Amino acid sequence: MAVLFLLQVAVAHRFFYSSVRFDLLYLIAVFIALEAGVRDALWSALWIGLLRDLASVGRLGSSAVLLVLAAAGVLLIRDRVFRESAVMDAAFVFAVVFLCALCDAVWLGLAGHEAAWGTLAGRATGQAAVTAALSPVFFVFFEWIGLVERPGLRQP
Fold first, then answer.
1. What tens digit of pLDDT does each residue of 10-20 get?
2. What's the count of helices (H) and strands (E) in the chain, helices before strands?
3. Is 16 in a helix, a strand, or coil?
4. Structurally, how many domains does the chain consist of?
């Protein structure tokens, strides 16, 4: 996870168009929430959120709270939804990134009284769409590197 955090901070912010960019940390959080146990998913969301806050010089804990709530939401519905397609996983990514980015946009809008709400909502939508579009590639990569340990896949 540390390598992906460094990639997000050092490289990912360079690949953007206007204010639309992807976010590896949201991808990791959603992947872990979809694939790991409840405890691991919530702890990972907390640590990923704290890393996001430290990297963005934002309010410490704001991303952590959002990601823990988003992970809890994913945990509540992940077993009730047929997820055998990349489209469904991308839909989960879109929903989580959109909600978290929209909450960040609302915070920015409230902090800067002259912010255009439509622009902030558009930025949240763009970030969610780009991150969701890239999620199948990264999910395959996360599976390949064994980001989440599954009891049924352990080697003797």
1. 555 555 556 66
2. 6, 2
3. strand
4. 1
